[in-house]
Automatic annotation (TrEMBL):
<dbReference type="GO" id="GO:0009253">
    <property type="term" value="P:peptidoglycan catabolic process"/>
</dbReference>
<dbReference type="GO" id="GO:0009254">
    <property type="term" value="P:peptidoglycan turnover"/>
</dbReference>
<feature type="domain" description="N-acetylmuramoyl-L-alanine amidase">
    <location>
        <begin position="33"/>
        <end position="183"/>
    </location>
</feature>
<dbReference type="GO" id="GO:0008745">
    <property type="term" value="F:N-acetylmuramoyl-L-alanine amidase activity"/>
</dbReference>
<dbReference type="InterPro" id="IPR051206">
    <property type="entry name" value="NAMLAA_amidase_2"/>
</dbReference>
<dbReference type="GO" id="GO:0071555">
    <property type="term" value="P:cell wall organization"/>
</dbReference>
<keyword id="KW-0378">Hydrolase</keyword>
<keyword id="KW-0961">Cell wall biogenesis/degradation</keyword>
<dbReference type="InterPro" id="IPR036365">
    <property type="entry name" value="PGBD-like_sf"/>
</dbReference>
<dbReference type="InterPro" id="IPR036366">
    <property type="entry name" value="PGBDSf"/>
</dbReference>
<dbReference type="InterPro" id="IPR036505">
    <property type="entry name" value="Amidase/PGRP_sf"/>
</dbReference>
<comment type="similarity">
    <text>Belongs to the N-acetylmuramoyl-L-alanine amidase 2 family.</text>
</comment>
<dbReference type="InterPro" id="IPR002502">
    <property type="entry name" value="Amidase_domain"/>
</dbReference>
<dbReference type="Pfam" id="PF01510">
    <property type="entry name" value="Amidase_2"/>
</dbReference>
<protein>
    <recommendedName>
        <fullName>N-acetylmuramoyl-L-alanine amidase</fullName>
        <ecNumber>3.5.1.28</ecNumber>
    </recommendedName>
</protein>
<dbReference type="GO" id="GO:0019867">
    <property type="term" value="C:outer membrane"/>
</dbReference>
Amino acid sequence: MKGIQRALLCAALFLAGCASQPDIIDRGSYRVDTRHQAPSAFPRITSLIIHYTAGDFDSSLATLTGPDVSAHYLIPARPPGYRGKPVIWQLVPEEKLAWHAGVSYWRGYTHLNSTSVGIELENSGWRQVPAGLGMVKRFEPFEARQIAVLTTLAREIIDRYHIAPQNVLAHADIAPQRKDDPGPLFPWQQLARQGIGAWPDEARVQFWLRGRDPQAPVDPQQLLVLLARYGYQVTPGMTPEQQQRVITAFQMHFRPARYDGVADAQTQAIAEALLEKYGQ
C-alpha cells in the first residue's frame, strides 16, 4: 500500500509540474515532454524560390491548381484590393510540399521542393525579338505594386523560417539548364536593400576586380569553381553550352546589365565578393 501511495504522490507531483511547465504540452488524452530536443534535426524549409508564371493570371492559376505543378503563393501583376489591402493567392499551405522547383540543386541539396517555399509572380516572361542579324530574348518588367506585396510576404517567410540570404533564389539558380525565371529584370538588388536575399558589397567587388577591365576575359573553369562553391550545380563533363547557362543564371541574378554567359573579370569579382560575405 505504501508503494502505491508513493507512486500516486510522485505522479501527482509530476502532473503538478506539468501544469506549470510550458515544455510539457497537454494534447487531450496524453501529454508530450519536449524538454529533450535531439540535435540531429533540421528545419524543413531552408530556402525561398522566386518564379515567374510565363502566362496571364487566369491561365497561371489554372495551371498551378491543376494536377501537375503547384506553388505556395501566386501574386498577380496588379494585385486587386479588398478592404484597402492587396490580395494574393495562397495555393498550398507553407507546411506542405508544393511542386514548383522540379529537378533542382542548390548547395549540395537536390529536390528543393522538399525544402522550400515557392512564390509565383504573374509575368509573361520573355519573347523573341529581332536584334541585328538575329533574335534576342526580351523580358517583361515587373509591376511596382506586385514587388511591394512580394517584399512584405518574402520578409515574413524569411523571418518565419530563418532563411539565409544566400538561400533566397531564382528558379534559374537552382535549375539553370531548364529555367530563366524570374529573369534579369527582377529587382534583386532592391529586395536585398530590404533584407531579402544576397547581394555583394560594391567595394568588395572592386577589391576583387583588382583594377582589371570588368569585361576582361577570365578562365571559365576558374569562374565555375567559384560558382560551384557558392551553390550552383557544376558537374564534370558539362558541355560549353551547359557551362554558359550556369554563368548566365548567375549574371541574371547578380549582374543583370549583362548576362551573356561570358566569363569575365566582373562576374568573377562578384562571385568572390559573395563568397567572402556569405560563406561557401
